[in-house]
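Dear Dr. H.,

I hope your travels went smoothly. While you were away I took the liberty of generating a structure for the chain from your last submission, since the lab meeting agenda had it listed for discussion. I wanted you to have the full record in hand beforehand rather than looking at slides cold. The sequence, exactly as received, is reproduced here:
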Amino acid sequence: MKNILSTTAIAAALLLGGHGFASAQGSNPSQSGNARGGMQAQMGAMSSSMSEDQLKSRLRERGYTEIEDVRRDGQMFRISQARRYGETVDNLRVDASTGRVQNEDRLGEDQIKNMLEERGYYDVEDIERDGFTYTADAKQRVGLRIDGQSGTISRERTRDSD
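The corresponding predicted structure, in token form, is as follows:
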């Protein structure tokens, strides 16, 4: 019974955690692969920029806190400093239309651990990197696969008993 509850809790955390990534990617229905669609997307971007509050909300969905010194620079926001999953990041450039961080670094192992703990996993261990993807084990007897850029958990598997 404990395994079922734990698995249900993890599934809920994954479901809710993925929402931030999906919304952080932004969507622009006017974008398309043809030249006309590209032009519409550019014009739409000029007229549909985020406010500073919307930007901060979008960044918080992606694990950013303590967002300091936000300045508007054309179609970009520039942020002098913030924290992402416990680590300081400097000089962020963020698209004013989508909220996408243009110079976002891959998450480090400590950030992965902090992110997973914020999402309800505990005793996170055996974090290993393979390219842009990490794997980790958590006390809930699960193995996780995490995108190192976005923090999205892409796979979860139940581990065998030790």
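Two observations you may find useful: The two ends are 18 Å apart (CA to CA). Residues 72 and 78 are 6 Å apart (CA to CA).

With kind regards,
E. W.
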